[in-house]
Amino acid sequence: MKNKTAYVTGGSKGIGYGIAEKLMENGVNVVITSRSQSSATEAADRLNDLGHPGKCTGTEADVRDLESQQRAVQLGIDTYGGLDIVVANAGVGHFGPVHELTPEQWNETIDINLTGTFNTVKASMDALMKSQGYLFTIASLAGTNFFAGGAAYNASKFGVVGFTQAVMLDVRNHGVKVSTIMPGSVATHFNGNEPDESDAWKIQIEDLGQMVIDLLRMPARTLPSKVEVRPSFPKSK
């Protein structure tokens, strides 16, 4: 993986940050995004300070805007010479019964989680076809398990799973591998959570980073196209 280039949306914290760090640890140069340039730069500086062989560049980009994604992808190509790995990770969650869910909450959830994934894939697929690279989307167990209060989030993540599997069929004969990763409970800052020792039972962000590395190392003939991930020892309800 040394000197390969990755593009990770929503990489300034949480799952995206954990994946970016593991990629850099394995020699991959990474472009991470945030909707804030200062957040992207601060996260990239923290990652570079870890001393991994891979380098990191942070840039402001919004997955809801295709042109924004195209600019960020081109930054990676111009900076590091190509594009080999894409992780469509940026996401948001609004939860509540449908009669209380606002149109604004619905639209933001679908626009970021589902349309944002499309925009990231659309902006990067030509480069991935050229490099015969690997696309990862970060979905959720909520993409197969519906729950009360999850109307918007379930719809977006069911959509990401279905979209990704269709993309996999579209591009595998072009040499591009595609996987969707569907985590359960993860210790992240998602929806304002501040991870602490009480989250030790959850999947950790570095675990998902290692999963990306393991999938990248799979034999070329083998494609785990949909991977469900759960905590090994969930808390008793």
From TrEMBL:
Gene3D superfamilies: NAD(P)-binding Rossmann-like Domain (3.40.50.720). Residues 4-190 form the Ketoreductase domain. InterPro entries: KR_dom, NAD(P)-bd_dom_sf, Sc_DH/Rdtase_CS, SDR, SDR_fam. GO terms for biological process: monocarboxylic acid metabolic process. SUPFAM superfamilies: NAD(P)-binding Rossmann-fold domains. It holds the Pfam family adh_short. This is Short-chain dehydrogenase. Belongs to the short-chain dehydrogenases/reductases (SDR) family.
